[in-house]
Amino acid sequence: MAGSFRSVSSKxxxxxxxxxxxxxxxxxxxxxxxxxxxxxxxxxxRAWLFGTIHALPDPVDWRSDKVEAALAASNRLxxxxxxxxxxxxxxxxxxxxxxxxxxxxxxxxxxAGERAGLERVLADLGLTGKLDGLETWAAALTIQQVxxxxxxxxxxxxxDRALVADYRKALGEFEGAERQLGIFDRLAEADQLELLRAxxxxxxxxxxxxxxxxxxxxxxxxxxxTAETNRDFLNDPELRAALLTGRNKAWAQRLRQVMAAGEQPxxxxxxxxLAGPEGLPxxxxxxxxxxxxxx
Length: 295
Fold this sequence. Notes:
Blueprint (H helix, E strand, L loop, with lengths): L1 H25 L9 E5 L5 E7 L12 H9 L2 E4 L7 H12 L16 H11 L10 H15 L8 H8 L3 E4 L2 H10 L3 H13 L4 H14 L2 H8 L7 H24 L4 E6 L9 H7 L3 E4 L2
Parallel strand pairs: 2-5, 3-4, 3-5
Antiparallel strand pairs: 1-2, 1-6
Helix pairs in contact: 3-7, 5-8
């Protein structure tokens, strides 16, 4: 009798577990609704600002009806880099700008008291001695790229790549790879070192940071994204001006020119560039444009 009871109980347990799994599989995933704004100019010009994320662990469905309507009404897609899917071209530009002859070893460029931390990160990533020919900014970006890949992030799942693959109208860009990487290349060495330090400091928490940013992006939580932009190296005034606020101002000026020429662009840039009082929506609103959050 005891054996029979155990058998029946076991069957009931597995049946209940199967039903629970089936119910979980049928439960709809939370909607992914990244932030989007509609911009209207004084002459009736229109544009849309859409916050993207450049890498995700898995593809997600972010194409809401509002996004599809904006894409259909637009006549140009504006990205940070239009040829985002040109891996060979991007790699070639990075190699040309990021390498310089006669550089000291990477660990020798930072104060002696900080070298052990950098050496641990390099060893953990299998990069010991492999970045010595790179300028400091390029080494920092390479370390961050390897950390992101280990965290399961894949740029192939990035929103900008999906947009480029599907958009059938004109493409435009704010910077392009040469100009974008050139911003890093022109940083003073002290600022490049601060970027490297920030990457090393965040190495252990990279996965948590990425997941937190992904969740904020998926919900269009601009308060959380604003908080992320105010962390770590973006607190450094020179880095913040070079990598965020200065670029936002240049993009706002470029967008005004595009709209004045009669284009109706769908602007898809990293969500951090749309956040806070220094983001594109706030800059355009301050310049007399009507900016309305639509998602």
